[in-house]
């Protein structure tokens, strides 16, 4: 079907577009199918890794991308963000999409009771997992301004309600979701949309390092209304939609990609016959 705004296939043609993707650690990373989907749709993609040393974890996956740019950036370092933005600007000249798929909290913050959360751990988790969205977006803004671009950030339902075991990272996600709406408002005059994707549990390096993740994952599989696991590629496809002109008037939204888990008032396994 087509209309005056273009056919669906043309709306998903990202030729001439460029994307900066943070958070690809390995092929299980949620950011990976986002990068792959955008690249398959025609966008040129820059992959930003925390430091060169983690590149070996990626194996040969970058070979699956057409003409990728690999950059290095620890998102807690402003000078690293500036350097990365310069490299992307030099290579691409402009930027249409920024994907924030980065989170970290010190391992000890997942131990013990929430009330024991240490001030220093709080500062680190909020800096890397939430503030970095402001810093990264500001860093690349000169490349994105007035191009109708899109910023996406990966969040989690623990921002909205208690998820056992998620602890300090829940606070970081709540902050991230507030940053999403404030950036959406701030950048709307530049034609830049800012949205969040909130997937259900996916077995990645970051997720499986949370001590309670196996319980969260098992419970999710048992209760989620759609009765199927969330895959990173489910997220990749939704990201493609959000980046496309099909979502041209959507900003400040948090889209759950969780088979409806977040709508449940009673998270129990569906009883027989209901
Ligand atoms: P992942 O381990 O594959 O990715 C996490 C990434 O964060 C890694 O690439 C790591 O290098 C990067 N990172 C950490 N500290 C950094 C720093 N200082 N500078 C630069 N990069 C840094 O795990 P993932 O599950 O794909 O996580 C991606 C995002 O998705 C995170 O924001 C996570 O909270 C979110 N998320 C994950 C799930 C899940 O169940 N896996 C669910 C909802 C949301």
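-> sequence recovered:
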């Amino acid at each position: 079907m087509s209309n005056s705004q273009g056919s669906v296939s043309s709306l998903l043609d990202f030729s001439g577009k460029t994307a900066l993707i943070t958070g690809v650690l390995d092929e299980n990373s949620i950011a990976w199918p986002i990068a792959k989907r955008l690249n398959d749709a025609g966008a040129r993609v820059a992959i930003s890794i925390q430091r060169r040393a983690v590149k070996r974890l990626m194996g040969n996956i970058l070979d699956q991308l057409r003409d990728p740019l690999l950059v290095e950036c620890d998102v807690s370092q402003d000078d690293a963000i500036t350097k990365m933005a310069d490299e992307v600007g030099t290579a691409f000249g402009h930027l249409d999409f920024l994907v924030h798929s980065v989170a970290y909290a010190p391992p000890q913050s997942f131990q013990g009771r929430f009330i024991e959360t240490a001030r220093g751990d709080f500062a680190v988790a909020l800096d890397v997992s939430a503030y970095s969205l402001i810093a990264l977006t500001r860093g690349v803004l000169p490349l994105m301004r007035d191009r109708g671009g899109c910023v996406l950030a990966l969040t989690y339902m623990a921002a909205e309600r208690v998820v056992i075991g998620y602890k300090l990272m829940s606070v970081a996600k709540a902050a991230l979701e507030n940053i999403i709406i404030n950036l959406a408002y701030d950048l709307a005059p530049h034609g830049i949309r800012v949205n969040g994707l909130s997937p259900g549990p996916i077995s990645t390096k970051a997720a499986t390092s949370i001590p309670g993740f196996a319980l969260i994952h098992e419970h999710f599989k048992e209760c989620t209304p759609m009765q199927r696991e969330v895959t990173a590629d489910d997220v990749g496809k939704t990201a493609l939609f959000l980046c496309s002109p099909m979502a041209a008037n959507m900003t400040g939204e948090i889209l759950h990609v969780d088979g409806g888990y977040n709508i449940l008032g009673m998270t129990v396994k569906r009883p027989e016959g209901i």
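The chain has one domain: 11-253.
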